[in-house]
Amino acid sequence: MNTLLLTLRERNALLYGFGVICLVGFVVCLVLVLTTSRQVLGVNAFVKPAKFFISIWLFCWTMGWYTGLLTQKSHVTLYSWVVIIAMVIELVIITGQAARGNQSHFNVSSAFNSMLFTTMGVAITVATLWTGYMGLLFFGSHHTVTDAAYLWGIRLGILIFVLFAFEGGLMGARLSHTVGAADGGLGLPGLNWSRQYGDLRIAHFVGMHALQVLPLLGYYVAHRSSLMIGVSIGYFLLTTLLFVQALRGKPLVSHLWGVLESRSV
Hints:
The protein is mainly alpha-helical and about 260 residues long. Helix content is about 70%, strand content about 5%. The chain has helices at about 1-10, 15-35, 45-65, 75-100, 110-135, 150-165, 165-175, 200-210, 210-220, 225-245, 255-265, and strands at about 40, 45, 180, 200. The chain has a two-stranded antiparallel sheet with strand order 1-2. Strands 3-4 form a two-stranded antiparallel ribbon. The radius of gyration is 19 Å and the shape is globular. The model has no long low-confidence stretch (mean pLDDT about 90).
């Protein structure tokens, strides 16, 4: 583990350091979850910031690892600062709104809240587009990756990540992630995905984690480019199916959850 962290820090010290800060923020939010009673949409207000701190930590360390494989170091440095600035904006607004007992996303209840929501959207759009550009560099010769399956895992992992990151734009346009009802209903423990209606966050989550899943499969499992591309297509189709199911207003596991609940009674 120490060797892994040292390698990550050598590859991209900026994103490594910011990831550490995000881990600290995650721990602070967990403490606040346990010690405060303020709620937003029926859930402790600091659950959402905690989720974003941990997801941004994972994103920063993942992209820190990949960008360390690129040879255009000036591009990597600029990208790292863009990500850090965008994520600071995101985290400050999400945590600040939680502290006020307000929604951060889809909140257009006042000019100020609307401005904060729009600012978050602009920041994350810039970071996502720049991530897509960094992914394009792996299609050229500006990298040191020699394993073809691993390389395709990185390429397609970043591509699918970007596609489903922009699904957030659909949720923003709808001012809701639930399809068929208002946000804030019964949700799966921990994840809080709707147990009764369609939830666009599921495909958003699964698609964005292609960033980690596909390169790992390319490195450890799929040792041929053709197999890696096939696996990536399958992953994309599965995530698209989750997206379509949400658009139809269908929950992910309503029947299974109902069976489990009935057996526990």
